[in-house]
Write a structure and sequence with these properties.
Largest sheet: 8 strands, parallel
Distance between the termini: 15 Å
Mean pLDDT: 98
Shape: globular
Strand order of the largest sheet: 1-8-7-6-5-4-3-2
Radius of gyration: 16 Å
Low-confidence stretches: none
Bound molecules: D-xylitol-5-phosphate, zinc ion
Length: 221
C-alpha cells in the first residue's frame, strides 16, 4: 500500500481546516512552502503550518505534517517550521551548500529529514548523505505550481534510487511529487515510490476519500 500525501496547495485556503478534514483518509498532509526565489511562486510560512498542525490534531491526528520547503537558505527557517508543528521537513539539494549540516540540523530538531531533487538533478547528488535521509523527494514536475503534467524521465531516476537505498539497506522512503493521479499512481509505485503527493488529483476529485483510496491501492491495471 502506498502512502498518500494530499498537497494543500490545491485546497481552498479560505476553508483550510475543512479541506484538511476532507482528506482524512490520507496518510500524510503535504505543505508546499514557496518563497518566490527558489521557485517563481509564493505560498505560505510557519503561521499557516501551525494552523495546518492544529487542524490535523483535531480532525486527523494520524496524518503526518509534511513540509516541502522550496526556499533558498532553508537553514534560517528550520527551527520555525519545527516549532510550527512540521513532522517532516524537506529541503532542496539545489539550495543547500552544506546539505549534510542541514539534514543533521533537521534531525536535531526531532523532525524527520527529507531532501528533494529537481527533475534535472541526479540521484547521485545524495550518495554521501543517504544515511541521514528519512525521505528522498523526487520531483516529477518542475517545482512551483500545482496541476502540471508529470515529466516521464522521472521513472528511471526513481528506479535507480530505490535500488541504491535497498542495496545499502537504508530506511529512507521515496516520495514523488507532481502530476500524480489515481490513474498513473501505479507507475510510481512500480518504480519504487513509497509516498505519493497529489494536489489537484485529490482536491479536484468529486469524492476525495475514494480518490485517496485508489491511489493507496494503486496497482498495474
Ligand atoms: C509543486 C508542489 C506540489 C504540487 C503538486 O511545486 O511541490 O506539491 O502541489 O500538485 P499536483 O499534484 O497538482 O501536480
Ligand atoms: Zn510539494
Amino acid at each position: 500500500m502506498a502512502l498518500v500525501a494530499p498537497s494543500i496547495l490545491s485546497a481552498d485556503f479560505g476553508h483550510l481546516a475543512r479541506d484538511i478534514g476532507s482528506v482524512a483518509a490520507a496518510d500524510w498532509i503535504h505543505v508546499d512552502v514557496m518563497d518566490g526565489r527558489f521557485v517563481p511562486n509564493i505560498t505560505i510560512g510557519p503561521p499557516v503550518v501551525q494552523a495546518v498542525r492544529r487542524a490535523r490534531d483535531e480532525l486527523a491526528p494520524h496524518m503526518v505534517v509534511d513540509c516541502h520547503l522550496m526556499i533558498v537558505e532553508p537553514d534560517r527557517y528550520l527551527e520555525d517550521f519545527a516549532k510550527a508543528g512540521a513532522q517532516v521537513i524537506t529541503v532542496h539539494v539545489e539550495v543547500c551548500t552544506h546539505l549534510d549540516r542541514s539534514l543533521q540540523a533537521i534531525r536535531g530538531l526531532g523532525v524527520q529529514a527529507g531532501v528533494s531533487l529537481n527533475p534535472h538533478t541526479s540521484e547521485a547528488a545524495l550518495d554521501y548523505v543517504l544515511e541521514l535521509c528519512d525521505l528522498v523527494l523526487v520531483m516529477s514536475v518542475n517545482p512551483g505550481f500545482g496541476g502540471q503534467s508529470l515529466i516521464e524521465r522521472v521513472f528511471p531516476k526513481i528506479e535507480r534510487l530505490r535500488a541504491r537505498i535497498d542495496a545499502l539497506g537504508l530506511p529512507a522512503k521515496i516520495q514523488v511529487d507532481g502530476g500524480v493521479k489515481a490513474d498513473n499512481a501505479w507507475r510510481f509505485v512500480e518504480a519504487g515510490a513509497d509516498v505519493l503527493v497529489s494536489g489537484s488529483g485529490v482536491f479536484g476529485a468529486k469524492d476525495r476519500a475514494a480518490e485517496i483510496r485508489k491511489i493507496q491501492e494503486a496497482a498495474r491495471p
